[in-house]
Structures are given as C-alpha cells and as structure tokens.
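step: validate -> pass
step: tokenize input -> pass
step: predict -> running
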Amino acid sequence: MTIQVAKITDTHCFSVADYHRMAEAGVFEEQRVELLYGKIVDMSPIKSNHAGSVNQLIRYFSMHLPKDDFLFTAQNPIHLDDYSEPEPDLSVLKYRADLYARSHPRPDEVVLLVEVADTSLEKDRDIKLPLYASHAIPEVWIVNLKDTQIERYRSPGPKGYTDIHIFLPGDEIATDFMEAVEVSAVLSV
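step: predict -> pass
step: emit ->
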C-alpha cells in the first residue's frame, strides 16, 4: 500500500505589521529572524570573524564618515515595503535629526547597505541583493569572508544591479560620500 503525502502549496505571507505584533508577543524570543518577501527567515549565528568584520567597518565608518550628512547603524531594520524588513549588517543612511527613532529607514533614506557574509553568502546574493535592487538601494557591499573580497553592487534596476565590481585585498574601494579605503582595512582577516 502506497501512502501519498499531500503537497502544501499555500503559505501565509506575513506583513511587517504582523511581524511586529508577533515580536511584541514574544513569538521569536531569542531567535534572530528578519522578514523577507513576507517570509520570516532565520538569520545565521554571528561567528567571531563575522563580528570582527562588522566591528572593523563600524570603526572605519565612525572615523571617516561625514557625521553631519550621514548616520550609520549596525544590524538594524530597513523598512523596504509592507512585506520586507531586512536587517543588514551595516547601513549608511541620510542623516535624520530623530536618528530614526520615529520610524525605520526607508529605501530613499539608504545610501549604502553592507552584508558581511560567511555562511549567509548564498542568501545575501540570491535573496537579499535582488530585494535591495528592486527597491533602488543605490549601493550594496557584500563583504565575502569566504573569498576574502568585497563585492560592490551599484546601479540598481528591475533585473538587479548592473555595475558589479570585486575588490581584493590590496585594492581600494571608494564611495561617492567617503574617501577610498583599502579592502584589508575593513576585512577581519
């Protein structure tokens, strides 16, 4: 006798409001999750090399970012739309006097998002990067710890980013708002 298993085809799509209510009710407790495309997605545990790279970036940005024009945050939500609120490792935002206490930043307030990737590399490239491009985030860096490089994505469009450049140790990476930095200065290697 053959037992057939029903295939589940319908899933529930959570809104940001649903997600916030669940968090307030303690559903996630100490789980690290983010909302992507209406799905609640587990975030990878933070390993020491990942944390070290985030700390290196924080240190660099705090010393070189013009403080009157920009604000940077680490591992805080970005409200992209009603169904996506990712938590990139680092965000460079347009300065706002309330320091984003009234609401999470929206796409037009984002200058640069940085994802530090070791075990999350596939998710960052295949899921989060297209999401960022579809919301016109102007620049995204993936700090690829596995291959010891920084992948810079600019010029977002409906099919993704069209200006893609790989920076290796010894290379310098610059932005429109900050002087060039040597790649090794922001990689915890």
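step: describe -> Residues 122 and 128 are 9 Å apart (CA to CA).
step: cleanup -> pass
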